[in-house]
Write a structure and sequence with these properties.
Blueprint (H helix, E strand, L loop, with lengths): L2 H14 L4 H15 L9 H9 L6 H20 L8 H6 L12 H9 L3 H11 L5 H5 L6 E2 L2 E5 L5 E5 L2 H13 L16 H12 L3 H16 L2 H8 L4 H7 L4 H10 L6 H4 L1
Antiparallel strand pairs: 1-2, 2-3
Keywords: DNA recombination, DNA-binding
Family: Belongs to the 'phage' integrase family.
Pfam families: Phage_integrase
Length: 271
């Protein structure tokens, strides 16, 4: 089967599986990248190894996305019997080293929103205080707010509730007073800003990658509560291991962990 045919079938399946449009585009981007190197239905482990070697200098997050896309494609292709000899096993075994997440310092956030427009302030706070993804911010509609709660449609069209704290509520209130009822961030794409436009605005206002705001918010939430499961739910992650990669522990937290391993006086006697 030719690459263009199987790519079209795979994209059709992704869309039919109710995955978010951004997810479909991301998966297709990386599978097409592989298709430019190999005949997908005839790829061997050597072909995959060569393609993976070219991703070595990319960030850990990007490599995770690439491998996840290739794994998903080959699982689908094997189930459909479009692939006779699958390199899936090799892809499943490839590790991607974890990197310490970069988090935006609180002082940077406070300075950046001090003179920001109401729209830009809300964009930054939704990334930092609600820990929303770019697409979730861009598509946020006023009907999705129910008082102190936001109904968020995330990856895979999965819904979750995210509570709004006071500073974020105030930022959203200002937009609701100034705009007609509709999207919080009107634009020319489907009535709302494009996620890439949101990325550029947040980067311009804060000087940081918007994903670092999500890391910072997740870290602050975990430090304040110690509830990893609640943080996972807020972020919309399918697994706790993904959430753990978002957390940045400072030296004080590491010292507390080390101190907690000390055997307390009297515990040996009790044993």
């Amino acid at each position: 089967m030719q690459n263009d045919v199987i790519l079209s079938l795979f994209e059709q399946w992704l869309t039919a599986s109710y995955r978010a449009s951004g997810t479909v585009k991301l998966r297709m981007r990386y599978v097409r990248k592989l298709a430019r190197r190999v005949q997908l239905t005839l790829a061997t482990e050597d072909h995959i190894e060569q393609a993976l070697a070219e991703t070595r200098e990319l960030s850990a997050e990007t490599r995770h996305s690439i491998l996840a896309s290739w794994r998903l494609f080959y699982r689908w292709a094997v189930a459909r019997r479009y692939v006779l000899v699958s390199p899936t096993l090799l892809i499943e075994q490839i590790p991607v080293a974890a990197r310490m997440p970069r988090v935006v310092p609180d002082a940077v956030i406070q300075r950046s929103i001090l003179n920001a427009t109401p729209r830009d302030r809300a964009l930054v706070l939704l990334g930092r205080y609600a820990c929303l993804r770019l697409t979730e911010i861009a598509t946020l509609h006023m009907r999705d707010r129910r008082g102190e709660v936001l109904l968020i449609r995330g990856k895979g069209d999965k819904e979750r509730y995210v509570y709004v704290n006071d500073p974020l509520a105030l930022a959203l209130d200002v937009l609701e007073e100034r705009l007609p009822r509709g999207h919080y961030f009107p634009g020319e794409t489907d009535g709302h800003l494009h996620p890439q436009s949101v990325h550029k605005i947040i980067k311009r206002v804060t000087g940081w990658n918007p994903h670092a705001l999500r890391h910072a918010g997740a870290t602050a939430a975990y430090r304040g509560t110690g509830d990893l499961r609640a943080v996972q739910e807020m972020l919309g992650h399918a697994s706790l291991s993904t959430t753990q990669r978002y957390l940045h522990l400072d030296d004080d937290a590491r010292r507390r962990v080390a101190a907690a391993t000390v055997i307390q006086p009297g515990s040996m006697l009790a044993a």
